[in-house]
Structures are given as C-alpha cells and as structure tokens.
From TrEMBL:
Organism: Streptomyces yunnanensis
This protein's record includes keyword Cell membrane: no
Protein name listed in UniProt: MFS transporter
Keywords carried by this UniProt record: Antibiotic resistance, Membrane, Transmembrane, Transmembrane helix, Transport
Family annotation (InterPro entries): MFS, MFS_dom, MFS_trans_sf
Annotated Major facilitator superfamily (MFS) profile domain residues: 35-477
Keyword Transport included in the entry's annotation: yes
Organism placement in taxonomy: Bacteria, Bacillati, Actinomycetota, Actinomycetes, Kitasatosporales
Length: 487
C-alpha cells in the first residue's frame, strides 16, 4: 500500500536548513527530553481526568443533591467531548500546526479546571467537563503529528520506544487517577479534582511554549513530499459538525442499551448518511472515506482497537463492580485487586515499545483476552484471592500490548499529512468501546453485579477475543508495518 510507505521516503527529502528547530543538547537530538516532556505531560491529562472523577462522584452528588444517574453525566460528557474532539483537533493540527493546537488545548484545560473548581451549579460542572474533554483531546493527536514532523526533520522513523512512552503516560495516569481523585476528595474536597488541572496544564503549557518547535510555514501543514498542505480554509467545518452530531446521537443511544431509545436511530442514520455524502463530495474531507476504503490496514486497526477496548473496559468496570457486590470487597480492596491489571499494562506497554514487530504483540494480546475470559467464567463469589489477581493480570497484558501495537500501526499506516486526525480517530474508536462497554454492563448486570452477569461478560469477551485473534492473524499488512516504525 502506498500510504504507509510515504513517511520513510519523505523523511529523506524534507530535511534541511529551513526545517531545523533549535539545537537540542547532546543526547537529546531528535526525539529528546525537550520534545517529549511537554508531549508526555499533555498526553496524560485526558486519561487521568477520565478516571480521577470516579472517586469524587458520591461527594459531588451529595453537595448538589443529585443521584447517580445525574452524576454519570460527568463521565459521559467528557467521553463524548473527547470522542468528537480527538479527530477534530487532529484535523486542525494537521492543517494549522500541532504546536498551536497543543497550546490552545492546555489553555482550555486551565479554564475548565478553574470553572469546575468554582462552579456554583451542577450544570456548570457538566459544562466544565465538556470543556475539559475538548481541551485534553488536543494533546494526543497534536503529539502524534509533532512526532511525524520530527521524523521528517531528522530523516528517520519515530522509534517505537518513543511511541511507547506516549502510550505508557496514558496507561499510568489512568491507573493512578482513581487513587489521586480519592486522595484529593478526602483531603481537600471534590473541587480539588478539578483544580489540580490548573497546575498540571500550566506545566504542560510552559514547557510546550519553551521547548516545542514552532509550526512550519504558519498557515500550512507539511505533507509527505514537503509541499505545503491544505490551508486554513480546508478544515471542513460542516463535515466536523456532521460527524459530531451523528456521534452524539449514536452515543446517547449506546448509553442506555438496557432501555433502548429507538427514536434516536433515525436521526443517527440520517446524519451518518449525510456525513458520508458530504465527505465523498468534498475535495478535502474531514474523514477521507476514499482513503480508508483504499487503506484497508488502517480501517482494520481502528476496528481492532475499538473491539479490544470494548472488552478491556467491560472487565475494568464490570469486574470491579462484581468484586464489591458479589465478592464483598470494599471499594479500596477492590482497587487493590485490580493493581495487577495496571502493573501488567504498564510493563507490557514498555515491552511492546521495545518490540520490532506489531503482529506478534497484538496476537498475544488477543490470546490473553481469551485466557482471561476463560478464568472469569470459572469465578464465583467465593473464589480465592490468587485466582482474582491472575484474572486481573491477564487483562492488563492486552491493555499494554494493544495500546502500543495499534498506536504504532496507526502511525505507520496513516497518510503522512493526516496522522493527527488518524490518531484522533483511533481514540474515538476507544471511547466508543468504553461507552458501549458501560451500556453492556448495565444490560448484563441489571441492578446488581452477580456471578451470572460476570459469566455473561466472560462469554462475550471470549467471543471478541477469538474475533480479534482472527483479525490480527489474517491482516498481512502487520507483517511489514512494524519495520517502518522502528528507528
């Protein structure tokens, strides 16, 4: 396929005096600490805010006198804003420059933290979460676009270890989020969960302004052949609006699979049809459907990533609820049981970053999902602690390997001038998996987590694991993709 090969060829043609950034110290040339520090700081803001709120929801509900169904919107609002914001801001980063998008995102995170910390009403608190979702959504696609630009500048592919650090920052921050949120809520009140974003975002903002290289040409992005890309007028705002509207309707439907809102399917279908029509006729569409039709490898990567995280989130949310309601653990002890999942995810993320290939780690990830699901089928409310820890660890392995593997695949398979939007769509697939998982848990558990409900999740997981393994082994493009992403 031509698209994945473009970055390597382009790297030799686009380096030169005009593209040089300020000289980095010895040992930091290329993908050094100055470039990576702000990118890593920005990349952790979204995942940590996705999980940090969990341990503050009860206190928020008590203060505003709202129930669990209402506080759930604080979670859903950010997922929705992030799912729309990631590819949208990735598109903007590809067109006007990733540094501008990164800086704008950190400013929005500061504003959201201040609004949430001072919000006098529950409605404004939800608004702050929406702004937080949009602001934190800027960092990851901007980081991926900036790494591609640096790859072109130095004339070599981005090392897998560098991509692995971005993935590890997301995994580690998501893992510590609930603990940090609980600590802040217990010591300083739930508003500190919002206020902590201000110093974190300011640190990312200052380091970004000081160390990130300026965007090239100001008004134009750089394509694979070194020519100026599309101008500011090519952002396709109508396509972005259609995408956001269709995705919003779809997510509102997915949020309540236990009580389906069937009327939402009609506007979702209409909006999706109009979106497809518009993207096919637009000269520079927001989502290049023709490219995706040609680039089967990239489309399959999105499918694999979404399915993997559908299962991972089913276990993350469903297993933790079962530990508390069926096994009798406290929330604190349930969190301790899940520690092997976080630890295994971090270790496997590092291991995946050091692996030259992509196909083998993804196959191992699918096999572990199948094995973990088999263990869940055997669990009962009286199962011993060691078995519970093994089950948690088995699902941590694919979390780390799938994250780094699919991230590296997207980086290699995306068009050279569209890596930001492509990376954003990868995260959108992940968020769709998360929202669908939450809905499936409600559907399978009902009012309370039970052994039967956990076993239903396990059977679903085994089926998805088999499908993922088949998709991975059948994808011949993964045999060569890995060699194009390793420096």
């Amino acid at each position: 396929m031509s698209a994945p090969d473009a970055p390597d060829r382009a790297g030799d043609r686009t380096t030169g005096p005009a593209q040089r950034t300020p000289q980095l110290p010895s040992g930091e040339a290329g993908f050094g600490a100055r470039l990576m520090t702000p990118l890593l700081l920005g990349s952790l803001l979204n995942p940590i805010n996705s999980t940090m709120i969990a341990t503050a929801l009860v206190a928020i509900g008590q203060d505003f006198r709202v129930g669990a169904a209402d506080t759930a919107w604080l979670v859903s609002a950010m997922y929705l804003a992030s799912a729309v914001g990631q590819p949208s801001l990735g598109r903007v980063a590809d067109r006007i420059g990733p540094r501008r998008v990164f800086v704008g995102g950190t400013v929005a995170v500061c504003a959201a933290g201040l609004l949430g910390a001072l919000a006098p009403t529950f409605t404004l608190l939800i608004v702050s979460r929406v702004v937080l979702g949009v602001g934190t959504a800027a960092a990851y696609p901007a980081a991926m676009a900036m790494l591609r630009a640096e790859s072109l500048r130095v004339g070599r592919p981005t090392p897998r270890a560098v991509l692995g650090r971005i993935s590890l920052a997301a995994l580690a921050s998501a893992a510590v989020g609930p603990t940090l949120g609980g600590l802040l809520a217990a010591t300083a009140g739930w508003r500190a969960v919002f206020a902590v974003n201000i110093p974190l975002a300011l640190l990312a903002l200052v380091s970004g302004l000081v160390w990130l290289p300026p965007d090239r040409n100001g008004r134009k992005s750089t394509t694979a052949d070194g020519a100026g890309g599309a101008t500011r007028g090519s952002l396709d705002p109508f396509g972005i609006a259609l995408f956001a509207s269709a995705l919003t309707c779809a997510m509102f439907f997915l949020l309540r699979l236990d009580a389906p809102r069937w009327p939402l399917l009609a506007p979702t279908a209409v909006l999706a049809a109009v979106l497809v029509w518009w993207q096919l006729r637009h000269p520079q569409p927001f989502i290049d459907l023709r490219m995706l039709a040609r680039n089967r490898a990239l489309a399959l990567t999105y499918l694999r990533h979404g399915l993997a995280y559908l299962l991972i989130y089913c276990v993350l949310y469903g297993f933790s609820q079962w530990l508390e309601q069926a096994h009798g653990f406290s929330s604190f002890h349930a969190g301790l049981v899940l520690l092997p999942m976080s630890g295994a995810a971090a270790i496997c993320s590092l291991a995946g970053a050091r692996t030259k290939g992509i196909r083998a780690p993804l196959a191992v990830a699918a096999a572990c999902l199948i094995a973990g699901s088999a263990v869940l089928v055997l669990l009962r409310g009286t199962s011993p602690l060691p078995v519970l820890l093994v089950a948690a660890a088995l699902f941590g392995i694919p979390q780390g390997l799938a994250s780094t593997g699919n991230q590296a695949a997207v980086y290699a398979q995306a068009p050279a001038d569209g890596v930001g939007a492509a990376a954003g769509l990868q995260r959108t697939a992940q968020y769709l998996g998360a929202i669908t998982a939450a809905s499936l848990i409600g559907l399978l558990y009902g009012q309370r987590a039970t052994d039967a409900g956990l076993h239903a999740i396990a059977l679903l997981g085994a089926a998805l694991g088999v499908l993922l393994l088949a998709l991975t082994l059948a994808d011949r493009s993964l045999r060569t993709t890995g060699s194009r992403t390793v420096g």
